[in-house]
Amino acid sequence: MSSSAQSVFTYDPLDGEPGTEPLATLRRGALLSAVDQANDAVDAAHNDWYALARSAAVLGRTQYSSGDSELAVAAYDQAVRLYNDNSRAMGRGEDAATGLATLVDCAGRAMLLHHRQGRRKLADSAFDVGRLFAEFLAGNRLTAPASQLLGRRAAVVQRTGQPRSGLLAPEILSLLDPQDTLREATWAVAEYLDSPGPHTLAEALRATGAESQPWATHLAGALTVDGGRKEDCWSPTLRGSHLGFLPNAAQAVSGALGDATGTAGDGWRLTGREIHMCYSVASGRGELRFALKDHAEYWGGLLLALGKDALRAGHTSLASDCGDWLRGVLTQAAPHTLIAPWGQKLHAGAQQLPS
Q: How far apart are CA 219 and CA 211, in angstroms?
């Protein structure tokens, strides 16, 4: 059994919850659609803090799986902040238990990401917040979040050499199943701490050697978020789409994906998925309404390159996802895609990708 399967977790507070449909899409391997759905959910939830907190938690997971983990940790941090700020308003019902357990889960994931990126103080702060609520839940007979957080913290402690005592109150530790903690620690190491990079767009651009290209500089700027203060932008859906540089960015990835291998290949894949998300966000916000005909060649070419790359690697679900997006772009940009030579080429390529 893989570490991912083991971690369905000790416990997953979002399992089967309404508003978590992007996670089902993610499990199917449709990475592009999963993060797009999660972004849309964030946009739709701004007037409901509970729905926004849950959507931020879901966005963090889908973003982590599909692209830049700095965007993922910003979403996790915001979910923790929203649940924490509104914890007294939740009462003590089932929604409160689910919300606080999700807070603990997001705090643990944020801790792992902050630690991996060298932000030890932020990692410690995330654990401290998670511990407060994990102990509260355990004291009310919901012990799974505490086991979950303890396992993740144990994985970090093993790397840092920090003292192992005092992680949770002794009376809470006595309630936990050591096997749950061990399973969660194993998952944390495999899925976060030892997960091969690149993990961030900056790391991806360095791996490809493209970090000094003008389009790369613009892309990095467009995807920078700051979740440090409550009023700061944290969601990728709020970033500027900066359409002007996207054709050059998409062409660069499309031209490199067929030949790149190893870390460089992984860097191009991550970069390509983030360029796609810029296009997706721009489309969702109406910025491509009158400009799609000018970008369809490049967005479509990127999707075709990502789809072929996924197919070569045996990732059929991702290839199908890319193919569905490509066919959608071609349809929306008609009749230009039916007339132009590049459109005919992309139509032929789309037929090679599964649906």
A: 10
Task: Please report, as a single letter, which amino acid is at residue 325.
Answer: W
Instruction: Please write the tens of the pLDDT for every residue from 138-164.
Output: 999 999 999 999 999 999 998 887 766
CA distances 152 to 156, 218, 244, Å, are 7, 35, 42
List of residues 6+ apart from 25 with CB closer than 8 A: 33, 34, 37, 62
To 5 degrees, how large is the angle CA 260–CA 316–CA 199? 50
Whether the model pTM is above 0.90: yes
Q: Per-residue pLDDT tens for 266-323? A: 999 999 999 999 999 888 888 888 889 899 999 999 999 999 999 999 999 999 999 9
Q: Which residue has the tokens 């917040």?
A: 129
Name the nearest CA neighbour of 219 among 193, 183, 197, 247: 247
